[in-house]
Design a protein that fits this description.
The chain is 23% helix and 22% strand. With 341 residues, the chain is an alpha+beta fold. The chain has three domains: 10-53 and 253-293, no CATH class; 60-229, no CATH class; 310-336, no CATH class.
């Protein structure tokens, strides 16, 4: 890049850091430090402020499965295998999902214990966990419902910290509070609360964030929502990724704000090396970020106090008349004026 242009690519950013510290790009260890500083800077720039950055917001829709109760089941006490009669557990429903899936919940007639489906169901067989402890069933009724829903792989957090959905009908609550209030969470209804949980990695290092709805849905719903993405870099081929790797990678941060990444990376580079220059770079970063956060786009609304003026307007129009508008305080004949009535 030309030295007169704004920082655009990964190479621009880490080369700018190297130039600022008077280091040569041929020194591999120093270049690695500069690259790491740029990647950390990109993440830290969004830490705690991502919900204010429109470029990090994404739209999604959550397809919610209705309960499935068709047919009957047979299960033996002390076993985990379930056999269905007239069931279609692996059949796709109108939501485009199977009627029963791994990690769905199931309850059996005569018991309020909630079991998890542990193995991919076929049309008439499935496996539950933990071991079934109820009375043996030969033609029992059941209910399969979904409590947890997979979130997009790039999901970081919701945009609104109070409501999950765009219609503001599903309130976000603390997961511990939800567990205490609904330890079984098996009575279906229209979802009113949601919380985030984590299943933990399985087969890879990827996390598995899940949304828990309460109560579990009693019907099929399509729930629109907005979230903050963790994919902050776009490669030359248009693919998104969490951090920089190739020189041509660009952050999703608008061009006019990208120098904030440079200043923060410079601060990181000077950490434990030069306190004076570190403080200078930090001050520059804070100055840029204050302007970024206060930049106003079309339609933006800033917090402000807007008192109701109807009461004052009414009194201004009729200051000397009408009950409740202070008419009597000007009635000098009755003495009300002196009493401020």
């Amino acid at each position: 890049m030309s030295v007169t242009e704004q920082f655009t690519t990964f190479a621009d950013l880490y080369t700018g850091v190297l130039n600022a510290v008077r280091s040569q790009a041929t020194q591999a260890s120093t270049t690695s430090q500069a690259k790491r500083a740029v990647n950390v800077a990109l993440q830290d720039m969004h830490l705690g402020t991502d919900y204010q950055f429109y470029w990090a917001e994404r739209e999604a829709n959550l397809a919610v499965n209705p309960p499935y109760t068709t047919g009957t089941v047979a299960i033996t006490q002390g076993q985990t295998s379930v056999v269905g009669t007239s069931t279609l557990w692996d059949t796709t429903n109108t939501q485009g999902m199977a009627n029963a899936k791994n990690d769905d919940r199931i309850i059996f007639s005569g018991s309020d214990v909630v079991y998890r489906i542990a193995a991919t169901p076929t049309t008439t067989t499935l496996t539950v966990t933990p071991t079934y402890i109820g009375a043996t069933l030969t033609a029992g009724t059941y209910k399969i419902f979904q409590e947890e829903y997979a979130l997009p792989s790039d999901y970081l957090r919701t945009v609104d910290v109070r409501f999950f959905d765009d219609n503001r009908e599903i309130q976000l609550v603390d997961r511990r509070k939800l567990r205490r209030a609904l330890p079984r969470n098996s009575t279906t209804g229209k979802p009113r609360w949601a919380t985030r949980t984590e299943l933990g990695p399985s087969g890879s290092t990827a996390l598995r964030p899940r949304l828990v709805l309460a109560p579990p849905a009693d019907a099929a719903y399509n729930i629109p929502y907005n979230y903050v993405t963790n994919l902050l870099v776009v490669a030359a081929d248009g693919s998104l990724q969490t951090g920089f790797s190739a020189d041509t990678d660009e952050p999703i941060v608008p061009l006019r704000y990208r120098h904030a990444i440079y200043y923060y990376a410079l601060k990181m580079f000077y950490e434990h090396k030069d306190d004076v220059r570190r403080a200078e770079a930090e001050a520059d970063y804070k100055s840029v970020m204050m302007r970024v956060l206060n930049d106003v786009d079309i339609g933006d609304r800033r917090m402000r106090i807007e008192p109701s003026i109807s009461h004052y307007a009414g009194r201004a129009q009729n200051p000397y008349s009408g009950a409740g508008h202070g008419a009597r305080q000007f009635d000098t004949a009755s003495g009300a004026f002196d009493r401020m009535e």
